[in-house]
């Protein structure tokens, strides 16, 4: 019986908080975000190769705010500004996280692996 009570508690907690969700999931967001990056941003300006972590808030309206990108790259501020521009071009909005039935601001972390023939080998 203790096990079923424990499971019940977990289910109760799951009902009080729901993560922010993008229509189609994180994979759909990443795909659409990458399309916007490659459509609008000249990645040749930056040494962008390998894995990058995009950290941002999803506000109570489902909009992306406070974007940061790690690791930092050459011209990091310009790169982050360009990524902000691209992320705003994503058509669908996030469904905000919900706590006790009310929308709340939440943090999202999306990892993207950039591969590019413009990688600076340091030669």
UniProtKB/TrEMBL annotation:
Give the region (Disordered) as residue ranges. 1-24
Q: Which domain of life is it from?
A: Bacteria
Q: Spell out the Polar residues composition-biased ranges.
A: 1-19
In Swiss-Prot or TrEMBL terms, this protein is called: TonB C-terminal domain-containing protein
Q: What is the lineage of its organism?
A: Bacteria, Pseudomonadati, Bacteroidota, Flavobacteriia, Flavobacteriales
């Amino acid at each position: 019986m203790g096990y079923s009570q424990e499971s019940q508690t977990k289910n109760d907690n799951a009902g009080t908080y729901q993560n922010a969700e993008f229509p189609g999931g994180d994979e759909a967001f990443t795909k659409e975000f990458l399309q916007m990056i490659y459509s609008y941003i000249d990645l040749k300006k930056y040494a962008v190769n390998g894995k990058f972590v995009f950290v941002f808030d999803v506000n109570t309206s489902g909009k992306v705010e406070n974007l940061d990108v790690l690791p930092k790259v050459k011209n990091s501020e310009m790169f982050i500004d360009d990524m902000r521009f691209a992320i705003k071009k994503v058509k669908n909005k996030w469904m905000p996280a919900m706590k006790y039935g009310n929308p709340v601001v939440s943090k999202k972390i999306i990892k993207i692996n950039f591969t590019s023939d413009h990688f600076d080998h340091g030669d």
